[in-house]
Specification:
- The complex is a heterodimer of chains A (341) and B (321).
- Chain A is built from twelve helices and 14 strands.
- By secondary structure, chain A is α/β, with parallel strands linked by helices.
- Chain B has 321 residues and is an alpha/beta fold.
- Chain B has a five-stranded parallel beta sheet with strand order 1-2-3-7-6, sandwiched between helices. In chain B, strands 4-5 form a two-stranded antiparallel sheet.
- Classes of the chains: A alpha/beta (341), B alpha/beta (321).
- Chains A and B meet through helix 3 and helix 11 of A and strand 4, strand 5 and helix 7 of B.
- The complex binds thiamine diphosphate and magnesium ion.
- Thiamine diphosphate (TPP) sits at the interface of chains B and A.
Chain lengths: 341, 321
């Protein structure tokens, strides 16, 4: 199997689906680039080069650069999805959802239900999220909890190149609107990725580590950190299960409950702002449905409730790291009673 | 042109400060010391300075992601700006904002903006404050050709028109939004768009400080006199990439070199004032040297300044957890 970056994995998934299905189109700002300019066509392939090469392969009719009008083109993608295309629209940074959210949460998300089940909206919105890039308050947020909150949307948060390819292909083939979150710090991460197309299921969590003492749930980029924390804790005699839910909507709460029942202890790692994020949501569901299995209070590892700061000195403190996960795991292990035999 | 010798020197100093600041940030960014996204304004100085020369401290401007020039033209402290770009505690926003969010509310600089099209409604708000409190102040919304296509820009212009706000919309059309040509992305003519909202507009050579200055002077005077909003479409160019690190392959190979040689706003300014014998070359050279020292100090100071302290992470937000 070939090693590919997260960037290549996403690109390959889109390219293979475009080749398979002529209804799949891609649109976004500088998604190819060089539109109307005297120099190179396909000059950008998106600001971080993820869609580079698609335009030469499929032409400008299927790889559409847009003016800077998110409300317009994301809405147009929703309308196109409703009428027979399968658009992949690029909301460059998820922070820009503020400009176009109506078209997503009042329009695309609700068609199927509001129209009595008659509508299909096979729309994928790709978007970059996450801190660590020194990109400051308006280019570093996670915001996936806001999308998870909206019934009718599916929310995908791949944690690795392998996951990204399989989940992207599944997203494109899905008949509901899917928001596909790409962490900007993951693009250069490499992994074994099969050349042929494959899908990974929505709503089915992936166990990246299996252990007995503690369950860690982590999302997106945090999965790597949770794995590292689990490995280090393993060396210290604490054996951890790490769950990557893959999608927050649908959320595979059953697997999480099962693992919590097995270990009795839970740490949830979520890079999103701490109020009403995935950590609070998962914790609440566990508290409601598996309270009796908990041997210690649930620990949540999230950033402080502040905008993402610019200064590297502050941003490095802001983002959850391996140390903080280990600390939370130790606290969870120290509290509460021993596991019944 | 009725600018005094002092005004001309002030204009040249401000434009030189922007140019040298941006050239320095460009050089320092290449060393890897400056974090994050940085969008440079070099080449567009005549716009920021030509407009802001007509404003006072009580007047407001809303800026863009390419905001360093607007900041300097509105009087922001250059050392504080450089420190901000380096993420230092002594930065104008205490290191929390960075290049894309420099602001100085005391000077009416309402902030650079990471959201394209984010500024125009804010400028309307500042104009509403001025109108409601009868302060006599005006607001200017700077925005790019890319921003001119955002719904927020259209909504702000209509609002300004129906509320007759003392606001001037300045479209800095530098030919590109990222790699996309404005000749492609703007459907129709921006002047006709403005006219559609009932807003008078003019197209101006944005390389020509004097043309910008005079057009802005008229628009700002109209706003101050209760005449409502105006629109300026400035045609200009940026010298560096969209952001630092952009290879600019979408531009013609000789495009920037030609612009620098033939249409540079600083060169044009110098030629004009020297030919008209308004300022002598020695005075202009002295300004350049003075600015060079200022930028050197600002850069050294920024590099030596301490980073924010850990506790700063949790301040300036209404609630901490
Ligand atoms: C709402 C939103 N969409 C997209 C972007 C990404 N972006 C940043 S600058 C830019 C181009 C802006 O072009 P223009 O308005 O012409 O300003 P210029 O960069 O030329 O000064 C884009 C697309 C953004 N920051 N905000
Ligand atoms: Mg532009």
């Amino acid at each position: 199997m070939a090693r590919k970056s997260f960037r290549q994995a996403v690109n390959e998934a889109i390219s293979q689906e475009m080749a398979r299905d002529p209804r799949v189109i891609v649109m976004g700002e500088d998604i190819a680039g060089g539109m109307g300019a005297p120099g190179e066509d396909d000059a950008w392939g998106g600001p971080l080069g993820v869609t580079k090469g698609l335009m030469p392969q499929f032409g400008r009719e299927r790889v559409l650069d847009t003016p800077i009008t998110e409300s317009g083109f994301i809405g147009a993608a929703a309308g196109a999805a409703l009428t027979g295309l399968r658009p992949i629209a690029d909301l460059m940074f998820v922070d820009f959802m503020g400009v176009c959210f109506d078209q997503i949460f009042n329009q695309a998300a609700k068609f199927k239900y509001m129209f009595g089940g008659k509508a299909r909206t096979p729309l994928v919105i790709r978007t970059m999220y996450g801190a660590g890039f020194r990109a400051a308050s308006q280019h570093s947020q996670c915001l996936y909890p806001l999308f998870t909150h909206v019934p009718g949307l599916k929310v995908v948060i791949p944690s690795s190149p392998y996951e990204a390819k399989g989940l992207m292909i599944a997203a494109i083939r899905d008949d509901d609107p899917v928001i596909f979150f790409e962490h900007k710090m993951l693009y250069d991460v490499e992994d074994e990725v099969p050349d042929e197309p494959y899908t990974l299921p929505f709503g089915e969590a992936n166990l990246t580590r299996e252990g007995e003492d503690l369950t860690i749930v982590a999302l997106g980029r945090m999965v790597t950190l949770a794995n590292e924390a689990a490995d280090r804790l393993g060396g210290q005699g604490i054996s951890c299960t790490v769950i990557d839910p893959r999608t927050t909507s649908p959320l595979d709460i059953e697997t999480i409950l099962e693992e919590v029942r097995a270990t009795g202890r839970l740490v949830v790692v979520d890079e999103a702002s701490p109020r009403c994020n995935m950590a609070t949501d998962i914790s609440a569901q566990v508290a409601e449905r598996a309270f009796e299995a908990l041997r210690a209070p649930i620990r949540m590892v999230s950033p402080p409730h502040t905008p993402v700061p610019f200064s590297p000195a502050l941003e490095d403190l802001y983002v959850p790291d391996v140390e903080k996960i280990i600390q939370a795991a130790r606290t969870a292990m120290a509290a509460g009673g021993r596991k019944a035999a | 042109m009725q600018l005094s010798r002092e005004d001309l020197l002030r204009a040249y100093r401000s434009m030189c400060t922007i140019r040298q600041f941006e050239e320095r940030v460009h050089a320092e960014f290449a060393t890897g010391d400056i974090p994050g996204f940085v969008h440079l304004y070099a080449g567009e100085e005549a716009s920021a300075v030509g407009v802001c020369m007509n404003l006072g401290a009580r007047d407001s401007i809303a800026s863009t992601h390419r905001g360093h020039g607007h900041c300097i033209a509105k009087g922001c402290d250059v050392a504080g700006m450089m420190a901000e770009i380096y993420g230092r505690k002594s930065g104008l926003c205490a290191g929390k904002g960075g290049s894309m969010h420099i602001a100085d509310l005391d000077l009416g600089m309402l902030g650079a903006n990471g959201i394209v099209g984010g500024g125009a409604p804010l400028a309307c708000g500042a104009a509403l404050t001025a109108k409601t409190l009868k302060t006599g102040a005006v607001a200017v919304a700077f925005g790019g050709d890319g921003a001119s296509n955002q719904g927020t820009t259209a909504e702000a212009m209509n609002l300004a028109s129906v509320w007759r706000l003392p606001v001037v919309f300045v479209l800095e059309d530098n030919g590109y939004a990222e790699s996309t040509a404005s000749a492609w992305s703007i459907g129709g003519d921006p002047l006709v768009r403005a006219e559609g909202f009932g807003i008078p507009g003019v197209r101006v050579d944005g390389h020509d400080f004097f043309a910008v200055h005079d057009a802005a002077r008229d628009a700002i005077a109209r706003a101050r006199d209760g005449g409502g909003p105006s629109f300026l479409h400035l045609k200009l160019a940026r010298y560096f990439g969209h952001f630092e690190g952009d290879g600019m392959t979408y531009r013609a190979a000789d495009e920037v070199a030609k612009l620098r040689a033939e249409r540079d706003c600083l060169t044009l300014f110098r030629r004009r004032v020297e030919e008209a014998r308004l300022l002598d070359p020695a005075a202009l050279d002295a300004v350049e040297a003075e600015v060079a020292a200022l930028i050197e100090d600002a850069t050294r100071g920024a590099k030596a300044a301490p980073m924010p302290a850990p506790a700063d992470l949790l301040t300036d937000v209404y609630v901490s957890y």
